[in-house]
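Hi X.,

You mentioned you wanted examples for the new student's onboarding notes, showing what a folding record looks like when two proteins sit in one file. Here is a clean example. The first protein comes first, with its sequence line followed by its structure tokens.
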Amino acid sequence: QVQLVESGGGLVQAGGALMLSCAASGSTFSVTPMGWYRQAPGKQRELVANIRRSGSTLYAGSVKGRFTISRDNAKNTLYLQMNSLKPEDTAVYYCLARRYSDDVSGYLSEYWGQGTQVTVSS
């Protein structure tokens, strides 16, 4: 079984910064942490940023230039550096990992963490 544990959330004033971490453990063979999503009250869960196995990255337009996603493959850990935080960034942030295979296209399975709360005050 795969476990994903997010950490680093908290309360910060607008303009501040936080670093989120997502640590994968358990049956992590061929499992790659891929991206961060967030969900605010009353809203759909949305993609914040992802990082492909190649290392290329993609950001939501609302966070581009402020957030940076990275991955430490040796530690099987995903990070999200969040700078210049705004009140509209307030949400629960979730980590997504996927299990891949060299023998098939696409991914085999998806795994979600439990989420970490980020609250930005004005």
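Then the second protein repeats the pattern, sequence line and then tokens:
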Amino acid sequence: QVQLVESGGGLVQVGGSLSLSCAASGSIISINAMAWYRQGPGKQRELVAGITTGGITRYADSVKGRFTISRDNAKNTMYLYMNNLKPEDTAVYYCNAEILRGGSISYRSYWGQGTQVTVSS
């Protein structure tokens, strides 16, 4: 069974840094695009950053220049390096990936359980 697990969330002060990781495991044939989403209290879930298999990236304007997304295809793992954190970055961060599962003929979207990031003033 395919599973995505995030780790690395926690409490950090304004201006600090934090690194998140997302590991995919299970009967995986291949992983296409991967992305980080976040959802603050009472807010809609929004795309933070996305990355293709080849390493092409896209960022939300609110995090551009501060966050860096990367992936290690050999480890089926994605990372988000967050720098100069602001209070508005406080949210639950979710890993998302389009995965071709063993025994399937098409990709589908999978979500991790989320990890809390809290930026204190």
